[in-house]
Specification:
alpha/beta; 6-stranded parallel sheet; 6-stranded antiparallel sheet; 20% strand; binds flavin-adenine dinucleotide; binds flavin mononucleotide
């Protein structure tokens, strides 16, 4: 086919080629034959760099509760892909930890939940790496920890994973980055660092990386309290407030989402602190988060109602007092272990942590109540110190609101706690304020005419005084929006009856619903309610489904992974 001269040239060149060069040349020639450009036959990595030392693949895994880590990981994956690297994005809820030994580059974006716990769906992965001695000596890794520094256990899960990987022999190629709620900037630096480290050998001249457009979802809304009603009867030992807030601006949320509030400390407590310490209330103080007058800082920004043990220990160090390992309010500390002067108190202001937000499940629905009105259901929490009754800070703060007063809040996404498709059945277990998101679910399903059946298990102390939203629920029953309602009032009978006992009584029907694809939601007190309910569900699956204990656990886990079993417990 070739002339003798051309054939000789080809023989001469090909004789000098290495194996790799010969493979490349065959692709080149094939490209010419097919009319393709040179670049079309090159592997994608070679478009961006000339080095042969290219990283084939990185895995980027995320563990998330409310979606931030997922959004961030997705943004990072996009950037790395654009640069020509292969990236596998992995949800830790689906990831098989055994596969870690097959990985070379593994990066994790993971948040912390509860009191320093992993996101619910990443718990299986977290437990696996902590309970098994896997050899990860072939793994290079890095961790981006999302958290909120207002929580005492800041970024604990990320820290745990980071140190556990090291113990298992993996090589940390970039240091852990702990990010607060305004994580965009730091995350983009981390992303850059990941990119540079991974590409060190592959790309001599990396392009600058655009910061990912990721939002923390913490947009602040201003609203006015338009109604506040105690849902408990006057005879009740409890106070549970139905609070309606109106906004000028449209609010966007899904049923299952929560409203976040940062409570203010009482003005009288602040005044007392100022008098005790002699500090100038108007003095401007700059903390790591905010610059404000002493008065404003104490009223709006600092957690002074219940200091962490670590803060009390720092207080002892600054003031020179010997203080036992306790949690106390700042006012009590100042009364028992006074500061020497205003300057010493200024130092104290720098060690006190920021006020933590509190979440309240939204009990309204956009479809039913419009986008400028939002409802929450707040139980005024109480506790006793030396037989004296005290109220929880935020629930007390919200319960004392008057109609017309202004309130600032943000929306915390529903995350895993969201309604399934309209035709799917749901079982809702929500005693006490656990009813809140289910009121939202019911209003939403009522307004949208969803065909799925809705079964509610509600409970509290007494039928007469504690049946929250009784009239509405009965209306929903009448119209068929609520298909089943089971009630457990623990103090109406000699023997205490709770929602889990009601579940037990309906074992067979519940199992039919589960087999038919129903989703189960649990909301309210974590201890002991959510635990007891879960044990009951496992018993139902075991007994009605004729399964072993282990298979029942797997059944519920599958439901959880598939988004059919969700808990919002606190
Ligand atoms: C996803 C989610 C949804 C939620 N939904 C709802 C809802 O719909 N409705 C609802 O009512 N709640 C809900 N909560 C709970 C809510 O966020 C708050 O945790 C609750 O209102 C208590 O907060 P608080 O500020 O009133 O109490 P805090 O002031 O935080 O006190 C909490 C506890 O700390 C201890 N404590 C505080 N100060 C002192 C002190 N000085 N000395 C000794 N002990 C002290 C007490 O034991 C007290 O009970 C939800 C929580 C989550 C995570
Ligand atoms: C109920 C609750 C508890 C939390 N507990 C912690 C905590 O203990 N430590 C921490 O650093 N952050 C904590 N956070 C903050 C989250 O980690 C932070 O909002 C993060 O951005 C969430 O990421 P995700 O959406 O990927 O789950 C908590 C948030 C919520 C709602």
């Amino acid at each position: 086919m070739l002339s003798e001269t051309k054939l000789n040239v080809l023989k001469q060149i090909s004789g000098e080629l290495s194996r790799d060069e010969a493979i490349w040349a065959s692709g080149y020639l094939a490209g010419i034959a097919g009319g393709t450009s040179l670049t079309a036959v090159l592997p994608p990595q070679q478009l961006n760099n000339s080095s042969q030392n290219v990283v084939k693949k990185i895995t980027l895994a995320y563990g998330t509760e409310t979606g931030n880590s997922k959004k961030l990981a997705t943004a990072l994956a996009g950037i790395v892909k654009k640069k020509g690297l292969q990236v596998k994005l992995a949800d830790l809820s689906q990831y098989k930890p055994k596969d870690l030994t097959k990985e070379e580059f593994f990066f994790i974006v993971i948040s912390t939940q509860g009191e320093g716990e992993p996101p619910a769906l990443a718990k299986k992965f977290y437990d696996y790496i902590h309970e098994n001695e896997i050899n990860l000596s072939g793994l290079k890794y890095g961790v981006l920890a999302l958290g909120d520094s207002s929580y005492p256990q800041f970024c604990k899960t990320g820290e745990d994973v980071d140190s556990r990987f090291e113990i298992l022999g993996a090589q940390r190629i970039i240091p852990i980055k702990k990010c607060d709620i305004d994580y965009e900037q730091e995350a983009s630096h981390w992303i850059e660092h990941v990119f540079e480290t991974v590409n060190k050998n592959a790309d001599q001249n990396p392009k600058s990386i655009a910061a990912p457009k990721v939002s923390s979802g913490r947009k602040k809304y201003q609203g006015k309290v338009s109604a506040i009603i105690n849902l408990n009867d006057i005879m009740s030992e409890k106070e549970t407030y139905h609070i309606e807030i109106e906004t000028e601006e449209a609010i966007v949320y899904q049923p299952g989402a929560a409203l976040g509030v940062i409570p203010f400390n009482s003005k009288s407590v602040v005044d007392e602190i100022i008098t005790l310490t002699g500090i100038d209330p108007q003095k401007q103080i700059e903390t790591s988060k905010v610059t404000a007058s002493v008065e404003e800082l104490l009223h709006k920004h600092l957690n002074i109602s219940y200091l962490l043990k670590s803060v009390v220990a720092q207080y002892a160090k600054i003031t020179g007092h010997t203080i036992p390992e306790v949690r106390l309010s700042l006012l009590d500390l100042l009364r028992i272990y006074p500061v020497k002067n205003a300057d010493e108190f200024k130092e104290i202001l720098h060690i006190v942590t920021a006020q933590a937000p509190r979440l309240y499940s939204i009990s309204s629905s956009l479809e039913a109540h419009g986008d400028t009105e939002i409802h929450i259901t707040v139980a005024r929490s109480e506790f006793f110190i030396d037989h004296q009754k005290h109220n929880g800070l935020c629930s007390g703060f919200l319960s004392e609101f008057k109609e017309g007063e202004e309130v600032e809040f943000y929306i915390q996404d529903a995350g895993h706690f969201k309604l399934p498709e309209a035709d799917k059945d749901i079982i809702m277990i929500g005693p006490g304020t656990g009813i809140a998101p289910f009121r939202s679910f019911l209003w939403e399903r009522d307004a949208t005419g969803a065909e799925g059946r809705n079964w509610l298990f509600f409970g509290d102390r007494n039928f007469v005084s504690d049946f929250l939203y009784q009239a509405e629920l009965q209306d929903f029953l009448k119209t068929g929006s609520l298909t089943h309602l089971d009630l457990a009032f623990s103090r109406d009978t000699d023997e205490k009856v709770y929602v889990q006992h009601k579940l037990e009584q309906k074992s067979q029907e519940i199992f039919y619903w589960l087999e038919g694809g129903a989703s189960v939601y649990v909301c309210g007190a974590k201890e002991p309610m959510a635990y007891d309910v879960e044990q009951t569900l496992l018993n139902i699956i075991q007994n009605e489904g004729k399964r072993s204990k282990e298979d029942a656990v797997n059944y519920l886990e599958e439901m959880e992974l598939g988004g059919r079993y969700a808990k919002d417990v606190y």
